[in-house]
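Hey, quick one: can you model this chain's 3D structure?
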Amino acid sequence: MKLLSKEALVLGGVYGVIDAPFTYMQLELVTDVFFMVFIICALMLCFNKTPKFLSYTIKNYPRTCYYLSSVGWIPYFSFIVLLGIVGSYYCLEYANDLLKQQIVYLGIFNLFAAVISLGVAFIRASCKKSGLGKGNK
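Sure thing. Here's the predicted structure for all 137 residues.
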């Protein structure tokens, strides 16, 4: 099961980077197509199959994959939280305004999480490159 691996994080990062502009432009049809491709690729990873574009990207662009994997957890987290929000909406039957507000807050959280994750990845890569990593004093 490769769903708990670097491939899954890179897949999440690729999905997040490609899907974000279309989401903020409110092009639902395009984002739905990208989401279906993301789900199909995630299911392939569940059955130990790696999509060719993913293995090619990991093999030939390790530095880019490092940054993609740093934000790769965000789509998975968002999907799980969104399922929880919608599930609680149907179980507790609260107002539509509250549902919309929670979804907007989730989008804001995703934006801040991406900035923080990329910042931490950049700092770690800079420290590793300059020799300030573990064991050096």
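One thing worth noting: The helical segments are 6-24, 28-46, 52-60, 62-70, 73-92, 96-130.
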